[in-house]
Design brief:
The structure holds three protein chains of three kinds.
Chain A: H1 8-40, H2 54-81, H3 84-116, H4 124-145, H5 149-179, H6 192-227
Chain B: E1 27-36, E2 39-49, E3 54-58, H1 65-73, E4 80-85, E5 88-89, H2 91-97, E6 98-101, H3 113-123, H4 130-139, H5 155-169, E7 173-177, H6 185-201, E8 204-208, H7 212-218, E9 221-226, E10 229-235, H8 239-255
Parallel strand pairs in B: 3-8, 3-9, 6-7, 7-8
Antiparallel strand pairs in B: 1-2, 1-4, 4-5, 9-10
Chain C: H1 2-16, H2 18-39, H3 43-74, H4 78-83, H5 89-119, H6 126-152, H7 157-168, H8 170-185, H9 192-218
Helix pairs in contact in C: 1-5, 2-3, 2-5, 3-5, 3-6, 3-7, 3-8, 5-6, 5-9, 6-7, 6-8, 6-9, 8-9
Classes of the chains: A mainly alpha, B alpha/beta, C mainly alpha.
């Protein structure tokens, strides 16, 4: 890792501070948004109060996708620059993305049972999320089984890119497959009273996601620092005589 | 055929691959470092090898000999330092201009000896028909088993097949990791003569070996590695004595005297 | 060109290890049998779901086949030897992926008669069916070759390859099952083309991506 002017401990404190602020902010926003969503906003025409789960479901969906997109960008960044910072952010992004995907599936089931009468309705978006959940769990498993840090970082970056490239095509294939069986009914038009708490909550969840990513990346960084060697060994104390060399070796430090 | 595009770092015109340059050392290594877990397998290794020089790489188990050869061959990425082969830098150049005979035989066990060699030859863009490659197999004494599946071979025969690949590649620097292991007396003599031929042709050779007396007679210079650092380098003839002294002092240090 | 040399090598290896390939076929056929037991003896239901059974069995068999294709590369570090020649990782990838594709196509084609017999699921449209199998096999091979190279270098490879690969192949599964069912049960609305298009799109994404990323996975 590159040396920098502030010590790791100082940087850790700064990150924790930022994360703390983000969590506090998100809790505030979440309470406001949820209050409006649960009590103030009008109920949806067809589904009634059950629909209010949307106020947490949609923000979770947006931010889950955001976390996975973030992970994908970090994966590319790592492969291009080979900077360890991106690997820690990749790990954090995938984990947060996986947690959100799981929550989405749970929320989706809670919505589906009272609405459609079944726990799972093969909705294309939710089904895509479920497939992605497994794909990224696979990436986490890969990280678990590879011991060498360099290989682990490079390989999980590859797997992240491949899995992410799959997302659009999974979505279209499931949508096609499902459209023959069932009509899509989800509220497309939303009046302003519903949109506002949605946006507030979306921001709140984004702050929460960012906080989790920061903290998780810090944890990954600490673990990495343990695994990677201490700074480069020093140059040779005295020049080693090289037969035939015109000048003594300097053993330059990188 | 992969053509390297890097220019030599000393400003002269780049040559076509395979053509050895008139001036300059075959191999120049500065400050080579390679991580291993939490410690360093190689720490600030410097080395310079002239054309046609044969170097004995010595050191106890775990001193970094195999790692060093694998890094030089381009199989492993160094964590720091520079490596120049025939004046050219870059991993692709290293792969092109070096050949490694390591602990693994790099063979397809299900295929025959001839088929294995043909695969290498085709990837190098050379004529790969039976007539072209049988002489190679004859040189290493495998012509009579050319069509047998490699998984029926003994370890020594595997080693001979690996040597045929070395001959095929005709590198500027040959990297041999414990090459004498598994070879019978005939194979031993064969390898000695192959190294001699390479020396005459101007190929630099690094031989990592535990056989210090034999190495001292065979090689021009020696380099002693310990825990990844260069402990000593000098004429090969002096190595056995130096090595004995080094291990004696290590023992003494361990005993606390 | 190195690609042809690599392809020649992989085809040769496939041929030389064909005994193993027939064992994989036996596994696929056994899987079809088990699936038919799971579904029960209702002839109409079996016929209706034959496409699904075929492709699930083929997916599981493919994991074995892909796994085996890299065993030979790592048992004596043959692939490393090639990379050090130097051989371009891209050429090695495409050689292996194409050979795997052919092997999987043959496997799929051989499982069709089993499907026909067990589920009474025949079709006269043989060429389109072969087309579906070929496209599906290509879709399995492209990311499969990449992941199999990774998995073969790890100790936990039995678990990791299916875990990584199968979720990724959901679009291939959906498209191939749908396409096969349409061929077996009839295609009144002419939807076969759209599913084939989906498969083409999948291949168009993953064949280039695999070649691009193989270097990272094959080298140290």
């Amino acid at each position: 890792m590159s040396q920098s002017t502030s010590s790791p401990a100082a940087k850790g404190d700064r990150s924790r501070l930022v994360a703390g602020i983000l969590i506090a902010l998100s809790l505030v926003l979440l309470s406001i948004g949820s209050y409006i969503g649960l009590f103030v906003a009008p109920p949806e025409f067809y589904m009634g109060d059950v629909q209010r789960i949307m106020y947490i479901h949609v923000p979770t969906a947006w931010n889950g996708m955001l976390a996975l997109t973030f992970a994908m960008v970090m994966a590319v960044a790592f492969l291009v620059t080979r900077n360890w910072k991106y690997d820690t952010l990749l790990e954090a992004g995938i984990e947060v993305g996986v947690v959100f995907s799981f929550l989405l599936c749970v929320q989706g089931s809670l919505w589906a049972k009272p609405t459609w009468g079944v726990w799972w309705d093969w909705d294309p978006r939710l089904t895509t999320v479920a497939v992605m959940l497994f794909a990224f769990l696979g990436v986490l498993a890969l990280r678990h089984f590879v011991e060498d840090p360099v290989r682990r970082a490079a390989w999980s970056a590859v797997a992240t890119i491949v899995s992410f490239a799959d997302v659009p095509i999974v979505y279209f294939s499931v949508r096609w497959w499902n459209s023959l069986h069932q009509l899509q009914t989800s509220p497309k038009m939303m009046d302003k009273a519903m949109a506002r708490p949605l946006h507030i909550n979306a921001l709140a969840v984004m702050a929460l996601a960012a906080a989790f990513i920061i903290l998780r990346a810090k944890l990954a960084e600490t673990r990495l620092r343990d695994q990677l060697a201490p700074p480069l060994p020093e140059a040779n104390p005295s020049p080693i005589a090289l037969a035939g060399a015109p000048e003594p070796a300097t053993g330059g430090k990188a | 055929m992969l053509l390297p595009s890097t220019k030599p770092s000393d400003g002269t015109n780049s040559d076509a691959p395979g053509r050895v340059r008139e001036l300059g050392p075959a191999l120049e290594v500065r400050g080579l470092c390679r991580r291993y877990g939490r410690s360093w397998a190689l720490a600030q290794v410097d080395l310079r090898l002239e054309r046609g020089e044969v170097l004995l790489l010595a050191g106890s188990n775990g001193s970094g000999k195999s790692t060093m050869l694998r890094v030089l061959s381009g199989a492993l990425r160094p964590d720091a330092g520079t490596i120049k082969v025939e004046g050219f830098e870059g991993r692709d150049e290293q792969r092109l201009r070096t050949a490694l005979v390591g602990h693994y035989f790099n063979t397809y066990e299900a295929l025959s000896a001839l088929q294995n060699v043909q695969i290498f030859s085709r990837l190098l863009g050379r004529p790969s028909d039976r007539a072209a490659l049988m002489p190679l197999l004859e040189t290493v004494g495998l012509a009579h088993r050319a069509d047998d599946a490699v998984h029926t071979f003994s370890a020594g025969m595997h080693k001979r097949l690996a040597l045929s690949r070395l001959l095929l590649q005709q590198p500027a620097v040959a990297l041999l990791d414990e090459p004498y292991g598994q070879l019978d007396p005939e194979g031993f003599a064969l390898l000695d003569s192959l190294i001699d031929q390479m020396r005459q042709r101007g190929t630099a050779v690094i031989v990592a070996s535990h056989l210090l007396e034999h190495g001292a007679a065979l090689c021009d210079r020696a380099l002693l590695l310990s825990k990844g650092r260069v402990q000593w380098t000098g004429p090969a003839a002096e190595l056995p004595a130096v090595s004995k002294a080094a291990s004696a002092s290590r023992l003494a240090a361990a005993r606390g005297t | 060109m190195q690609l042809f040399a690599a392809l020649h090598k992989d085809l040769l290896l496939s041929w030389r290890t064909r005994a193993q390939a027939s064992a994989v076929f036996a596994f696929g056929a056994a899987a079809l049998l088990l699936l038919s037991f799971a579904a029960g003896p209702d002839a109409e239901a079996l016929r209706h779901n034959a496409g699904g059974f075929l492709w699930v069995a083929l997916l599981f068999a493919s994991v074995l086949s892909l796994s085996a294709s890299f065993q030979v590369e790592y048992e004596q570090r043959a692939m490393e030897g090639l990379l050090l020649l130097p051989a371009s990782p891209r050429a090695l990838y495409y050689g292996k992926a194409i050979a795997n594709w052919l092997q999987l196509t043959v496997l799929g084609a051989m499982l069709v008669p089993v499907m026909v017999v067990l589920f009474d699921a025949g079709t006269w449209r043989v060429f389109p069916l072969l087309g579906v199998i070929a496209l599906g096999a290509a879709g399995i091979s492209a990311p499969g070759t990449l992941y199999a190279a990774m998995a073969a270098q790890l100790r936990a490879q039995q678990v990791l390859l299916p875990l990584l690969l199968l979720p990724l192949l959901v679009p291939v599964l959906l498209a191939c099952v749908k396409a096969t069912s349409l061929l077996v049960m009839g295609d009144p609305m002419n939807q076969l083309g759209s599913w084939m298009l989906l498969l083409v799109a999948f291949n168009a994404i993953f064949w280039p991506l695999g070649g691009l990323l193989f270097g990272v996975v094959a080298e140290e």
